[in-house]
Design goal:
The protein is 38% helix and 24% strand. With 289 residues, it is α/β, with parallel strands linked by helices. 40% of the residues are buried. The protein binds adenosine-5'-diphosphate (ADP) and magnesium ion.
Amino acid sequence: MGIIKAKNLIYNYIKRDEEEKVEEVNEAVKDVSLDIEAGQFVAVLGHNGSGKSTLAKHMNALLLPSEGTVWIGGMDTKDDDSLLEVRRTAGMVFQNPDNQIIASVVEEDVGFGPENMGVPTDEIWRRVDECLKAVGMTAYRRSSPDRLSGGQKQRVAIAGVMAMEPKCIVLDEPTAMLDPNGRREVIRTVRELNKKKGITVILITHYMEEVIHADRIYVMDEGEIAMEGTPEEIFGRVDELKALRLDVPQVTELAHGLRKKGVPLSPCILDVEELVGELVGIRKQRTAQ
Ligand code: ADP
Ligand code: MG
């Protein structure tokens, strides 16, 4: 069993009237099964309302299945006795860094989680040093979070989760409120945590360009997993992605069209420079022949 496993997960949001009678049932997740190996970088793509956040909240027992089972580190999330350990295994990072930063000084904020867990003081400071370094925020350790950019704040929030030493980090659209620079900073940080520290990463996003380095991609639609595969496999299916209302970058679509016409381009082209680079390479090869 992988570090995160879901089997036939169903989640319904149920709205009741004053007499507790069911008024409305919203089937947000319908029969999702997945199995994520420790150490992987997994991306979950999907348009708004496809069930990504509902799925994410099951990975840290913020929601419990209506039907089916979720295991985190082998523990059934429905088991009350495992709740604390489940939350220690999988940390969550949300969209808005302002809602996650509590303290008025960066280093205190990062130390807050481990302090709450009863970690000894020396060890807290060791973790604060290490985590701030890992996200590239050591220079700001005594700053007030209010003075940081969105990307910097989100990196502090990630350091705060890291300081609790989870085995995996689930990030629910961590870049949605950031500018392109902030987005790049956050994605770079998350990739490094995965590569250097071996932390399992679940990155939820609707930006296709953020998932190109993932080991595996799940695409959600209407509460179900509609596509699953490596980035190469997923990006090679542009027409299906568009049908699932995902924004496929124009240049990816162009490359896809060219590939269909027989131009030997790689499937994961996401920016103009890459496309030009490959086309120039192909041309050089042809003139050399
Ligand atoms: P995503 O994160 O992909 O945008 P969500 O998991 O937030 O999707 O939502 C999936 C579905 O569940 C949507 O139809 C949404 O309207 C519904 N939903 C989300 N949160 C709630 C809630 N608290 N109460 C009722 N319905 C909800
Ligand atoms: Mg969401």
